[in-house]
Amino acid sequence: MPQDRSRFPILLVGAGKMGGAMLEGWTKARLGPVVVVEPKPDPRLKKLKGVAIVRSIENVLPAELRACVVALKPQVLAVEAARLKPVADTGVAMISIAAGTSIATLKRAWGSGAHILRAMPNTPGAIGRGITAIHAGTKASAADRKLAERLLAPLGETVWMAKESLIDVTTAVSGSGPAYVFLLAEALADAAAAQGMPREDAERLARATVTGAGALLASDNRAPEELRRDVTSPGGTTEAALAVLMGTAGLKPLIARAVAAANKRAKELAS
Questions:
Q1: Looking at the domain that runs over 10-162, which CATH code has it been given?
Q2: For 268, which of 84, 99, 101, 206 is 20 to 30 Å away at the CA?
């Protein structure tokens, strides 16, 4: 019979923006005690109840863990992964949110029997408004999947990917996507300034337009195309702008090329 780990601590390796956001969510939801491995802990972490902070993985007792969430940057995980093998050997769910780090790579460090789940969150997760794609390795159980959903919920929505290759697509779309949206806000402000608007006003308008449109998109279940048509009056200013943006060299083909480039790079990093 599998060991009951429900009362054991959750192990969080890395407490940066994403790790810290999850940690705060876990404490609010009272998911149980947490052990955090963080060599340079933020002072606010010390104020959280039920959280023990250690500086090194060697200070953790692997047999007494409920799950392990690895929130390290890929380059750091490449160095530190092998030190987590004693944890993986206990059969706990090993949930990695490192971009460009494949399950095959993690298996080389943790063993072929490790219960590995790979997740790709995005930066809005730091305020609970993100979305995380998850793919379960072959050894991950239904209980592991359920626990992964619960542990990643503080970052926002979760969506399961049937193929690991789609995690790379997720990286290119939602993982990198906030940067594309920020660039749009930047471009709108630049364009307004080029038309003679004071820079401060241009940036305020651009920021409010992007965040407001995002909020409307989140609250309205209609397709983005329908929302776009609502703004577009025949013969009006929006139609004139969209004639440029939707041309053969416009926004859609440009975004398609950008996502393809990011997906290609994600595959290269994972190889």
A1: 3.40.50.720
A2: 84
